[in-house]
Amino acid sequence: MFVRKIKNRWYYTINEVDQNGVRHQHEHFGGFTRSEACRAYRQAMAEQDRTGKYFEPSSMNFSDFLQEWLEKYARYYLKPNTIDLYNSVISNHINPNFGKWKLRSLTTAALQDWILELKDSYSKSTVKCIMSCLRSSLRWAVANREYLLTNPMDNVKLPPYRTAPKRPKVFTPEAIQAIFERFPAGHPIHMPCVLAYYTGMRLGECLALEWSNLNMTARTIRITGTCYDKKGVPKITATKTTSSTRTITFGSKLYAELKAQKLWQDKNRFQAGPFYREDSQHKFICTMSDGRQMTSNNVKYFGMWCKEHFPGTSFHSFRHTHATMLIENGLALDYVSKRLGHSSIYTTANVYDTITDQREKAAVEAMERIL
Known about the structure:
49% of the residues lie in helices and 11% in strands. The protein is mainly α. The chain folds into 3 domains: 2-51; 62-143, Tyrosine recombinase, N-terminal domain (DNA polymerase, domain 1); 173-361, hpI Integrase, Chain A. The strands form 3 sheets. It has a 3-stranded antiparallel β-sheet. β6 (226-228) and β7 form a beta hairpin. α3 packs across α5. It is elongated. The N and C termini lie far apart (71 Å). One of its GO terms (biological process) is DNA recombination.
């Protein structure tokens, strides 16, 4: 084994015999320490023994590889919102730091050191997203493209964050009353607010909901998709996760709201006549006065209004409020988890089980009676 140090990098040399029987020497970057270079040498030799030839790590720039990954993998296998998120992560974080690096030059040590630096400037969720993008793309480089022998992200660890988790913001009863006074029945924003409050649905799920998804007799809603409208014409895509495809039951209050919404749409359709801009293929529940499907852009004003009158809240606070009210009134955590469409009950527990002060008070009162 021959390894040597050049400046602050270590290189190893490996021999290979080509198809004509000519012997060649290849020197390659092995890492920033001698032990890393030795480990890279052993991996190269193991691959040579296994296949009979030397494995040449890809010499393309990491930015070029990421573009290929986005076009050939992410485009077909990831949700549009995830692709948007990863595009932002790549352009704002990964490419400025590693874009010009050769793919073969990436090491666990370099990536781990960078992740540790990010902790001082970015939240835990942002760092986790960056790591997820790196890990997924480099896994594809190993398993699908065979550009690398091993994934340098496999042993990169998320640094510990000692801060307490943020408590989800919920609407108080007074806030709910103020919201429905400001956005009453007949206002386009009223219906998505009502759906989110009574069912815990996400905004995209509300905007994708069609009348065909409702069973007014059984009083159930079948959620089968979500609305993606960040680029161009809105389109209905698959739900966030497989568990997000679910059936939700509702009561008499939402039933009355849905009946009123149907009458409001019928009235608008009659008054507008041929100028009613209803989708010919989809009969959406959340529409504008002229029949157009609502988009997330139409709901932006609601978010701005919330920030002004109830700081820290947003449309998503309806979902937090719904879940919190169910838990505080004794509904089982597994039921709430399924109703929200969480992929795991642990997600529900981590987000909501720490904010139910009412349950804490009830527990204290029970202990007082028992002990």
